[in-house]
Amino acid sequence: MSGKIDISVTVNGASYNRSVEPRMLLSDFLRHELGLTGTHVGCEHGVCGACTILLDGRSARSCLTLAVQVDGQEIETVEGQGSREELGRVQTAFRDHHGLQCGFCTPGFIMTITDMLHHHPLESDEQIRDALSGNICRCTGYQHIVNAVRELAKERGPLQ
Amino acid sequence: MKPVAFDYVRAQSVAEAVAALTSSGGEGKVIAGGQSLMPMMNFRMVRPSVLVDINRIPGLDRIEERGERLHVGALVRHRMTASDPVIGRHLPVLHAVMENVAHLTVRNRGTFCGSVCHADPAAEMPMMTLLLNGGVHVASPRGERVVAARDFLLSSLTTALEEDEMVTGIALDTLPPGTGWGFEEFARRHGDYALAAVVATMEGRDGCARNVRVAVMGVGDTATRLPGVEAALEGQRVDEDVIAGAVERLRAEIEPNSDLNGSADYRRHLAGVLAARVFRAAWTRAQEGGAA
Ligand SMILES: Cc1cc2nc3c(=O)[nH]c(=O)nc-3n(C[C@H](O)[C@H](O)[C@H](O)COP(=O)(O)OP(=O)(O)OC[C@H]3O[C@@H](n4cnc5c(N)ncnc54)[C@H](O)[C@@H]3O)c2cc1C
Ligand code: FES
Ligand code: FES
User: Ramachandran region of residue A46, left (φ > 0), alpha (ψ -120 to 50) or beta?
Assistant: First the structure.
């Protein structure tokens, strides 16, 4: 029972072929098989949002997804959002607005916000806070994160 | 924690999925969005020996008008239910309710039918399925059957689904344009499971409430319709006296449990407060012709 299964996935534009046990969580696959430790693991039951990634362009909990399920699909993680030399747009807004302290929750916020900027109306603070409500941060008190998103939302303009 | 080891079947059709469930001899589990199942597997509270993934079965991800009813396929995600224009046209109340379900990332994956199969007493989708006289379409090696929502939702986390069956979709009533609706829930944090919620719909005809439907959740082993409360409102001009009578009836009819979020008495009180607001809102909308 539970022999390994071959999968091929694209992560941040690079394709990977691996053989995985069905029970391997996507979060563990990214961290342990691919060495992409930017995706953090907090609660492993869908509540904290630290493990959020993009799956075919939409945010998903990698701790509630199995690696075997994403065969043939495209994943984006925080590593694809920018580099130390050249931060991505959401990362820059976080730096400018002090949107992080310890940084544990940050990769999940960055990925959730990337989804929000593509798909969600963000015209009021209420809408911004509602869209962020699935990600928990123990440090910042959220205000600086909301400030960062407000600037990004303004820059984006109204959704379509 | 991590799940125990299991075999994985990626079903390409409903027939393949039910065949895999059958050959697992009762040890199989369907995975749809995984937003309730995976936490339970990570905690090892659920240990299937075969996991049957239905996510790649074509054709299940649609919301369709079928005669007077709307058919919500097994892969319709919360995000779709919350924003689909067909639902907006026929069931504005469902749009309003869906705004309170979980958070955007969970809504991207979680399915309407998966929530009904999970049958959490504090989940919105089972309550809405009861309110809208849902017919649960169930497939098995024996063919298809349709189970009425009230016969499907048996109690907390328990449904009438047999081991070799899967749900392919749920048919819901549409409501006539202009139907008034009200919905209120109280959760400790927006998007979390609610301590209690009340939903009602009614048409306003000749100055009276007609075709009244009332459902509650979080105040019993399963979401439920409240026929006595519906009767207290049916045919009435819904003024404050009628509302007070209906609220009293509601508090008598429900059997809430105590848990660490609130005592049974607190929940009974809360449900009544929410209900009064819901009946007022539904009546006002019914008189305005249901304008959202
Ligand atoms: C952080 C968080 C917050 C949440 N907040 C809320 C909330 O406020 N309100 C709310 O209602 N829910 C909430 N949920 C739960 C969410 O709505 C789930 O998505 C939903 O309950 C289950 O749907 P699913 O498609 O993910 O099902 P899964 O997790 O895949 O499955 C759930 C159960 O149903 C069975 N099942 C699923 N589909 C089928 C099928 N087609 N046929 C037969 N069996 C099937 C599975 O075998 C399993 O037993 C929350 C979840 C999380 C992680
Ligand atoms: S680790 Fe996935 S949501 Fe917390
Ligand atoms: S910055 Fe520390 S948890 Fe958010």
Answer: left
